[in-house]
Amino acid sequence: MLAERAAVLGLTLITAAKAMTTSPSELRGLHASASRDALSGTSLQKLQRLPAVPGNLPNRVNDLLLLRPDPEEHEKSNNRHVVFFHGDIQNFQEEMALQPEGAQWLSWSLEQVAFTLGRRFPDRHVWVVRASRMYLHKFSCYQNFVESNMFGAPEHSPYSADSGAFHHLRALLSHGMVRASLPDPLKPQGGADSIPSGFSLTLVGFSKGCVVLNQMVYELPGARADPQMSPFVKHISDMFWLDGGHPGGSETWVTDKQVLKELAASGVSIHAHVTPYEVCDPMRAWVGREHGHFIKTLEEFGACPSKKLHFKDEPPSIENHFRVIQEF
Fold first, then answer.
1. CATH number of 284's domain
2. How many CB atoms sit inside 10 A of residue 78's CB?
3. May I ask which residue range the UniProt record assigns to the signal sequence (predicted)?
4. How far is CA 311 from each of CA 16, 17, 117, 293, 317, rounded to the nearest angstrom?
5. Which residue in 328, 247, 320, 256 sits closest to 290, CA to CA?
6. Residues of the domain holding 322
7. Is residue 143 part of a domain?
8. CA distances from 213 to 74, 119, 193, 194, 197 (A)
9. Whole-prediction pTM
Protein backbone atom coordinates (compact mmCIF):
# COMPACT_ATOMS: atom_id res chain seq x y z
CA MET A 1 0.00 0.00 0.00
CA LEU A 2 2.80 2.41 0.88
CA ALA A 3 4.59 1.69 -2.38
CA GLU A 4 1.40 2.27 -4.38
CA ARG A 5 0.78 5.57 -2.59
CA ALA A 6 4.41 6.55 -3.17
CA ALA A 7 4.11 5.83 -6.87
CA VAL A 8 1.02 7.99 -7.23
CA LEU A 9 2.43 10.89 -5.22
CA GLY A 10 5.82 10.61 -6.85
CA LEU A 11 4.24 11.24 -10.24
CA THR A 12 3.60 14.84 -9.15
CA LEU A 13 7.28 15.64 -9.45
CA ILE A 14 7.71 13.74 -12.72
CA THR A 15 4.65 15.25 -14.37
CA ALA A 16 5.66 18.77 -13.48
CA ALA A 17 9.15 18.18 -14.83
CA LYS A 18 7.76 16.77 -18.09
CA ALA A 19 5.58 19.82 -18.48
CA MET A 20 8.64 21.94 -19.10
CA THR A 21 9.54 20.48 -22.50
CA THR A 22 12.84 21.34 -24.14
CA SER A 23 14.07 20.44 -27.61
CA PRO A 24 17.10 18.14 -28.01
CA SER A 25 19.22 20.98 -29.42
CA GLU A 26 18.27 23.23 -26.51
CA LEU A 27 19.11 20.44 -24.06
CA ARG A 28 22.54 19.95 -25.60
CA GLY A 29 23.24 23.66 -25.25
CA LEU A 30 21.98 23.62 -21.68
CA HIS A 31 24.16 20.62 -20.83
CA ALA A 32 27.28 22.27 -22.21
CA SER A 33 26.57 25.63 -20.59
CA ALA A 34 25.75 24.15 -17.17
CA SER A 35 28.77 21.87 -17.26
CA ARG A 36 31.06 24.80 -18.05
CA ASP A 37 29.53 26.88 -15.28
CA ALA A 38 29.78 24.14 -12.68
CA LEU A 39 33.06 22.52 -13.55
CA SER A 40 35.43 25.24 -14.67
CA GLY A 41 38.48 27.14 -13.45
CA THR A 42 39.43 27.38 -9.83
CA SER A 43 36.08 25.97 -8.69
CA LEU A 44 37.02 22.57 -10.08
CA GLN A 45 40.23 22.58 -8.07
CA LYS A 46 38.27 22.83 -4.83
CA LEU A 47 35.75 20.10 -5.71
CA GLN A 48 36.62 16.45 -5.19
CA ARG A 49 34.46 13.41 -5.93
CA LEU A 50 34.94 10.46 -3.60
CA PRO A 51 33.19 7.35 -4.95
CA ALA A 52 31.89 4.47 -2.86
CA VAL A 53 32.97 5.73 0.57
CA PRO A 54 32.01 3.14 3.22
CA GLY A 55 30.03 3.95 6.32
CA ASN A 56 29.98 1.89 9.50
CA LEU A 57 29.34 -1.28 7.47
CA PRO A 58 31.67 -2.07 4.53
CA ASN A 59 28.79 -2.91 2.17
CA ARG A 60 26.98 0.38 2.86
CA VAL A 61 28.64 3.02 0.69
CA ASN A 62 27.79 6.48 -0.59
CA ASP A 63 29.44 8.69 -3.17
CA LEU A 64 30.55 12.02 -1.74
CA LEU A 65 31.43 15.41 -3.13
CA LEU A 66 33.80 17.54 -1.07
CA LEU A 67 34.11 21.26 -1.71
CA ARG A 68 37.04 22.71 0.19
CA PRO A 69 36.85 26.24 1.62
CA ASP A 70 38.40 29.19 -0.15
CA PRO A 71 42.14 29.41 0.56
CA GLU A 72 41.72 32.69 2.44
CA GLU A 73 39.06 31.04 4.60
CA HIS A 74 40.97 27.83 5.20
CA GLU A 75 42.57 28.89 8.46
CA LYS A 76 39.18 29.86 9.89
CA SER A 77 37.56 26.63 8.68
CA ASN A 78 39.78 24.42 10.83
CA ASN A 79 37.54 21.36 11.22
CA ARG A 80 34.12 22.86 10.45
CA HIS A 81 31.89 20.90 8.10
CA VAL A 82 28.54 21.14 6.33
CA VAL A 83 26.78 17.98 5.12
CA PHE A 84 24.00 18.19 2.52
CA PHE A 85 21.41 15.53 1.64
CA HIS A 86 19.75 16.16 -1.72
CA GLY A 87 16.25 15.54 -3.05
CA ASP A 88 14.69 13.63 -5.93
CA ILE A 89 16.03 14.09 -9.49
CA GLN A 90 19.27 15.67 -8.24
CA ASN A 91 22.38 13.75 -9.24
CA PHE A 92 25.85 14.25 -10.65
CA GLN A 93 25.95 16.66 -13.58
CA GLU A 94 26.64 14.12 -16.31
CA GLU A 95 24.00 11.68 -15.08
CA MET A 96 21.28 14.33 -14.94
CA ALA A 97 22.16 15.42 -18.46
CA LEU A 98 21.31 11.93 -19.78
CA GLN A 99 17.78 11.97 -18.36
CA PRO A 100 15.04 14.06 -20.06
CA GLU A 101 13.57 15.14 -16.72
CA GLY A 102 16.91 15.60 -15.00
CA ALA A 103 18.35 17.67 -17.84
CA GLN A 104 15.78 20.39 -17.17
CA TRP A 105 17.19 20.94 -13.69
CA LEU A 106 20.94 20.84 -14.32
CA SER A 107 21.41 24.05 -12.41
CA TRP A 108 20.53 22.02 -9.30
CA SER A 109 22.98 19.18 -9.90
CA LEU A 110 25.03 18.00 -6.94
CA GLU A 111 28.07 19.91 -8.19
CA GLN A 112 26.11 23.14 -8.57
CA VAL A 113 24.58 22.73 -5.13
CA ALA A 114 28.04 22.21 -3.65
CA PHE A 115 29.13 25.56 -5.10
CA THR A 116 25.94 27.25 -3.85
CA LEU A 117 26.59 25.93 -0.35
CA GLY A 118 30.21 26.98 -0.63
CA ARG A 119 29.05 30.56 -1.11
CA ARG A 120 26.66 30.21 1.83
CA PHE A 121 29.36 28.67 4.07
CA PRO A 122 32.69 29.95 2.67
CA ASP A 123 34.69 28.92 5.74
CA ARG A 124 33.47 25.30 5.87
CA HIS A 125 34.21 22.03 4.19
CA VAL A 126 31.03 21.22 2.25
CA TRP A 127 30.07 17.55 1.80
CA VAL A 128 27.28 16.48 -0.53
CA VAL A 129 26.09 12.94 0.16
CA ARG A 130 24.68 11.19 -2.88
CA ALA A 131 21.76 8.86 -2.11
CA SER A 132 22.82 5.23 -2.35
CA ARG A 133 20.07 4.47 -4.85
CA MET A 134 18.21 6.52 -7.47
CA TYR A 135 15.16 4.47 -8.45
CA LEU A 136 14.18 5.16 -12.09
CA HIS A 137 16.94 7.83 -12.03
CA LYS A 138 14.53 10.07 -10.09
CA PHE A 139 13.66 8.84 -6.62
CA SER A 140 16.45 9.32 -4.07
CA CYS A 141 16.65 6.52 -1.52
CA TYR A 142 18.71 6.95 1.66
CA GLN A 143 18.57 3.28 2.61
CA ASN A 144 21.97 3.47 4.32
CA PHE A 145 20.59 5.99 6.82
CA VAL A 146 16.96 4.94 7.26
CA GLU A 147 14.89 1.94 6.21
CA SER A 148 13.08 2.97 3.01
CA ASN A 149 10.97 1.58 0.20
CA MET A 150 12.00 1.79 -3.44
CA PHE A 151 10.65 5.34 -3.77
CA GLY A 152 12.59 6.51 -0.70
CA ALA A 153 9.64 6.76 1.69
CA PRO A 154 11.14 6.10 5.16
CA GLU A 155 10.27 3.80 8.03
CA HIS A 156 11.78 5.56 11.02
CA SER A 157 13.20 3.68 14.00
CA PRO A 158 14.90 4.49 17.32
CA TYR A 159 18.63 4.47 18.00
CA SER A 160 20.61 1.26 17.62
CA ALA A 161 23.98 0.69 19.28
CA ASP A 162 25.62 -0.51 16.06
CA SER A 163 23.70 0.88 13.07
CA GLY A 164 21.53 3.76 11.96
CA ALA A 165 21.89 7.30 10.64
CA PHE A 166 24.36 8.64 13.22
CA HIS A 167 26.66 5.62 12.97
CA HIS A 168 26.63 5.73 9.17
CA LEU A 169 27.20 9.49 8.95
CA ARG A 170 30.04 9.48 11.43
CA ALA A 171 31.90 6.64 9.70
CA LEU A 172 31.16 8.11 6.26
CA LEU A 173 32.70 11.46 7.25
CA SER A 174 35.66 9.76 8.91
CA HIS A 175 36.47 7.63 5.87
CA GLY A 176 35.80 10.57 3.54
CA MET A 177 38.25 12.78 5.44
CA VAL A 178 40.94 10.12 5.23
CA ARG A 179 40.26 9.55 1.54
CA ALA A 180 40.50 13.31 0.91
CA SER A 181 43.71 13.56 3.00
CA LEU A 182 42.25 16.15 5.35
CA PRO A 183 44.37 16.79 8.45
CA ASP A 184 43.15 15.58 11.84
CA PRO A 185 40.23 13.47 10.63
CA LEU A 186 37.29 12.40 12.72
CA LYS A 187 37.61 8.85 14.06
CA PRO A 188 34.86 6.45 12.91
CA GLN A 189 33.95 5.52 16.48
CA GLY A 190 34.89 6.25 20.07
CA GLY A 191 34.22 8.67 22.89
CA ALA A 192 35.23 12.26 23.49
CA ASP A 193 38.89 11.65 22.66
CA SER A 194 37.91 10.53 19.13
CA ILE A 195 36.58 13.98 18.13
CA PRO A 196 39.22 16.27 16.60
CA SER A 197 39.83 19.71 18.03
CA GLY A 198 37.59 22.41 16.59
CA PHE A 199 35.24 19.92 14.95
CA SER A 200 31.70 21.16 14.24
CA LEU A 201 28.96 19.89 12.01
CA THR A 202 26.02 21.55 10.23
CA LEU A 203 23.43 19.26 8.63
CA VAL A 204 21.26 20.38 5.70
CA GLY A 205 18.46 18.30 4.24
CA PHE A 206 16.54 19.35 1.14
CA SER A 207 13.21 17.81 0.11
CA LYS A 208 13.65 14.00 0.25
CA GLY A 209 17.01 14.50 1.98
CA CYS A 210 15.14 15.66 5.09
CA VAL A 211 14.31 12.01 5.84
CA VAL A 212 17.91 11.63 7.04
CA LEU A 213 17.53 14.53 9.48
CA ASN A 214 14.20 13.13 10.64
CA GLN A 215 15.78 9.74 11.32
CA MET A 216 18.49 11.43 13.38
CA VAL A 217 15.80 13.14 15.45
CA TYR A 218 14.24 9.74 16.17
CA GLU A 219 17.67 8.41 17.15
CA LEU A 220 18.60 11.42 19.27
CA PRO A 221 17.42 10.16 22.70
CA GLY A 222 19.46 6.96 22.38
CA ALA A 223 22.44 8.67 20.77
CA ARG A 224 22.70 11.27 23.54
CA ALA A 225 22.61 8.48 26.12
CA ASP A 226 25.37 6.46 24.41
CA PRO A 227 28.81 7.54 25.74
CA GLN A 228 30.39 6.45 22.46
CA MET A 229 28.06 8.53 20.30
CA SER A 230 27.07 11.50 22.46
CA PRO A 231 30.38 13.40 21.95
CA PHE A 232 29.79 13.32 18.18
CA VAL A 233 26.17 14.46 18.53
CA LYS A 234 27.23 17.35 20.80
CA HIS A 235 29.30 18.79 17.95
CA ILE A 236 26.27 19.18 15.66
CA SER A 237 25.66 22.92 15.80
CA ASP A 238 22.81 23.40 13.30
CA MET A 239 20.18 21.37 11.45
CA PHE A 240 18.43 22.88 8.42
CA TRP A 241 15.23 21.42 7.02
CA LEU A 242 14.68 22.83 3.50
CA ASP A 243 11.18 22.17 2.15
CA GLY A 244 11.04 18.59 3.40
CA GLY A 245 8.94 16.10 1.46
CA HIS A 246 8.75 12.43 0.53
CA PRO A 247 6.20 10.14 -1.20
CA GLY A 248 4.84 8.53 1.97
CA GLY A 249 1.50 9.61 3.36
CA SER A 250 2.76 10.85 6.74
CA GLU A 251 5.84 11.70 8.82
CA THR A 252 7.14 14.28 6.39
CA TRP A 253 8.00 16.25 9.51
CA VAL A 254 8.68 14.73 12.92
CA THR A 255 5.65 15.07 15.19
CA ASP A 256 6.54 12.67 18.02
CA LYS A 257 6.53 14.85 21.15
CA GLN A 258 9.06 12.79 23.08
CA VAL A 259 11.76 12.92 20.42
CA LEU A 260 11.06 16.59 19.71
CA LYS A 261 11.49 17.28 23.42
CA GLU A 262 14.94 15.67 23.13
CA LEU A 263 15.75 17.80 20.07
CA ALA A 264 14.68 20.96 21.89
CA ALA A 265 16.97 20.07 24.81
CA SER A 266 19.95 19.13 22.64
CA GLY A 267 21.23 22.65 22.06
CA VAL A 268 21.17 22.21 18.27
CA SER A 269 20.03 25.33 16.39
CA ILE A 270 16.98 24.33 14.36
CA HIS A 271 16.03 25.96 11.05
CA ALA A 272 12.95 25.24 8.92
CA HIS A 273 12.66 26.86 5.48
CA VAL A 274 9.65 25.93 3.36
CA THR A 275 7.81 26.94 0.20
CA PRO A 276 4.16 26.67 -0.88
CA TYR A 277 5.13 23.75 -3.10
CA GLU A 278 5.34 21.49 -0.04
CA VAL A 279 3.35 23.08 2.79
CA CYS A 280 0.42 24.57 0.82
CA ASP A 281 -0.43 21.65 -1.47
CA PRO A 282 -4.11 20.70 -0.89
CA MET A 283 -3.42 17.22 -2.27
CA ARG A 284 -0.89 16.65 0.52
CA ALA A 285 -2.42 18.74 3.29
CA TRP A 286 -0.74 16.69 5.99
CA VAL A 287 2.67 18.17 5.05
CA GLY A 288 1.64 21.67 6.12
CA ARG A 289 -0.07 20.36 9.26
CA GLU A 290 2.99 18.35 10.27
CA HIS A 291 5.29 21.30 9.63
CA GLY A 292 3.13 23.47 11.88
CA HIS A 293 3.09 20.78 14.57
CA PHE A 294 6.90 20.42 14.36
CA ILE A 295 7.43 24.14 14.93
CA LYS A 296 4.75 24.52 17.61
CA THR A 297 5.95 21.52 19.63
CA LEU A 298 9.57 22.65 19.61
CA GLU A 299 8.52 26.11 20.78
CA GLU A 300 6.43 24.57 23.57
CA PHE A 301 9.54 22.76 24.78
CA GLY A 302 11.54 25.98 24.88
CA ALA A 303 13.38 25.77 21.56
CA CYS A 304 13.48 28.79 19.26
CA PRO A 305 13.49 27.32 15.75
CA SER A 306 14.06 29.82 12.98
CA LYS A 307 11.35 29.47 10.35
CA LYS A 308 10.47 31.09 7.05
CA LEU A 309 7.94 30.53 4.28
CA HIS A 310 9.72 31.56 1.07
CA PHE A 311 7.94 32.76 -2.09
CA LYS A 312 4.61 32.90 -0.24
CA ASP A 313 3.18 35.37 -2.79
CA GLU A 314 4.13 33.23 -5.79
CA PRO A 315 2.35 30.16 -7.18
CA PRO A 316 3.77 26.84 -5.93
CA SER A 317 6.40 25.53 -8.34
CA ILE A 318 9.24 23.05 -8.49
CA GLU A 319 11.52 25.91 -9.53
CA ASN A 320 10.85 27.74 -6.26
CA HIS A 321 11.10 24.44 -4.41
CA PHE A 322 14.71 24.19 -5.64
CA ARG A 323 15.38 27.89 -5.14
CA VAL A 324 15.06 27.51 -1.39
CA ILE A 325 18.60 26.03 -1.57
CA GLN A 326 19.81 29.49 -2.62
CA GLU A 327 17.56 31.51 -0.36
CA PHE A 328 17.84 29.85 3.06
1. 3.40.50
2. 17
3. 1-19
4. 18, 19, 20, 21, 10
5. 256
6. 45-327
7. yes
8. 27, 22, 25, 23, 24
9. 0.87
